[in-house]
Amino acid sequence: MLIVIDKLLNKNEVAQMRARLDGSGWLDGADTAGSRSIAVKQNLQLPRGDALAQELGNAILRKLGNHPEFVSASLAEKIWPPVFNCYRDGGHYGTHSDAALMRLPEAGLSIRSDLSATLFLTEPDEYDGGELVAETAFGAQSVKLEAGDMVLYPSSSLHQVTPVTRGQRICAITWIQSAVADEGARALLYDLDCSIRALTPDRAKDDADINRLIHVYHNLLRRWAQV
Ligand code: NI
Predict the structure, then answer these.
(1) How many Å lie between the centroid of ligand 1 and the Cα of residue 128?
(2) What is the tens place of the pLDDT at every residue in 91-123?
(3) In b/e form, how buried is each residue of 84-105, taking b as 16+ CB within 10 angstroms?
(4) CB within 5 A of ion ligand 1: which residues?
(5) Which of 44, 47, 127, 192 is a plausible cystine mate for 26, CB 3.0–4.6 Å?
């Protein structure tokens, strides 16, 4: 299942981030690809440890932690420091799957990637191509979102970024270890939570049916979560 987190950043926040990223020291992204991925990856990235990438990445992490839709959809337990990348001049990332286990020894961080996330920082009309295409149970789905929007997709899916043939596509990407590893269980919890959040405003604070739904939600979470 692909889930879109609308307006993680507003247009003003996107513009500020873009201004900081313009002229930053992009490096060949193949430097960070695995031996299989290196053959299919052609993009630019900000190097790990880059001060600007860390500062902007932390700003994104704070936004994610405060966004109810992201929290509900991901049940994030650990989040990888966001990576900034730029595709231009035919840049692309051919069909690949993301590494299941990711380690950052210098930060003492080790995660199992359950969800992959792409935050778009350029508007769709600024570039041609650059679609994120993920293979799902219902066939290939193509995603190209407005700047400030984020898509979450299963890290287990095969996916690609199609060649950027005009302009440039700047994104931040990250990976999430969820407290609920099973995608189907996580999707059920997300559906249930969406309905609870939709129904709650119209009900009394002590509404017995809402309380029972919340009770069911937390007991399923207790049953399925690993923390
Ligand atoms: Ni990928």
Answers:
(1) 20
(2) 999 999 999 999 999 889 999 999 999 999 999
(3) bbbbbeebbbeebbbeeebeee
(4) 98
(5) 44
